[in-house]
Amino acid sequence: MRFVGIDPATNTGVVILDADGNPILETVIRGKGRTQPGGISLEQRVSLQNQLYRLLQSGDVVIKEAIAHGTPRLITSSKIHGGLEDMITRKGLRFDEVAPAAVKKFVRAKNHKIVDGVKRKLTSEKEKKGAMAEAALEHFNYSNPSHDVVDAYIIAQIGMAVHQVRSGEKTLEDFKLIYQREVIWSIIDPDGYKEYVDKPKSNKRRGKPAATDSHTQNTEQTCLF
Questions:
Q1: For residues 40 and 4, which has the higher predicted lDDT (pLDDT)?
Q2: Are 20 and 40 in contact (CB under 8 A)?
Q3: Are strands 61-65 and 95-98 parallel, antiparallel or unpaired?
Q4: Which domains does the chain have, with CATH numbers?
Q5: What is the pLDDT, as a whole number, of residue 224?
Q6: Is 76 helix (H, G, I), strand (E, B) or coil?
C-alpha cells in the first residue's frame, strides 16, 4: 500500500510513502507546453494531469490539499485541482481532501515571529514556507529543499494517519498530539468535528468519529492518452 500526498499548483508537489511511512517518491511536476501569463495554459494542464496519472498506481491511498479560501487565483487553482481530481478518478482511485489550514495545523507551523521582542505575523510566502519546513523537521525529522515537496510530504502523512484510523489499525487516541487528532477527525467525520468545534469551550467533548468514506467517484476509467 502506498500513501500519496498531492499539493496542487502550477508546480505540484507529490510525495508517495510506503506502508511504513517512508518516502519512495518526492517530486515536483510542472505542466509542459505553451505558457500563459498569469495562469496556466490548457496544454500545460493536460501535461500536468498526464504526469500525475502516470505516477499513480492501483490501490494507492490518495489525499490532496483543497483550494484555499480566498485564494487570489481562484480560476487557475480550480482548473488545476479539477484536472488532477479527474486523473485520480480515471485511475479508479478515491481521494480525501485536507484544508490548507489543517495541513499547517497538523505540524503546528508557526504563523508569527518575534522581532525586537514584539510578536509579528508572518506575511511573506518565504517566511511561511520556512515555518512549514521547520515544522516538518521538528515533527517528522523530514527535510527537502523544495517547499512544494515538504507540503506534499505532510499531506501524505495526514493521509496515512486518516487511513490508519479509518481502517481500525489505530485509534485517534494513538495520536498523542491533540492538534493532529483534530485534523484526522475533521477528515474522517467532518460533521461530528464541526459539532465539537461549534460547542461552547466548557462543553467540548470529543466523540467517536464515524468511519466515513473518502470521495467516491465511479466515472468511466477511459483515458485519452
A1: 4
A2: no
A3: parallel
A4: 3-203 (3.30.420.10)
A5: 41
A6: helix
Strand partners, 112: 121
Distances (CA, A) of 77 to 67, 151, 195: 7, 16, 30
pLDDT, one tens digit per residue, over 118-156 is 777 776 788 889 889 999 999 999 999 999 999 999 999
The pLDDT, as a whole number, for residue 197 is 87
Residues whose CB is less than 8 angstroms from the CB of residue 123 and which lie 6 or more positions away in sequence, other chains included: none
Q: Which three cell numbers stand for residue 26?
A: 518526492
Residue 220 confidence (pLDDT): 41
Cell numbers standing for residue 78: 480550480
**Main-chain phi, psi angles of 119, to 5 degrees:** -80, 120
Overall size of the chain counted in residues: 225
Q: What pTM was computed for the model? A: 0.85
Q: What DSSP string describes 31-68?
A: --S---TTS--HHHHHHHHHHHHHH--TT-EEEEEPPP
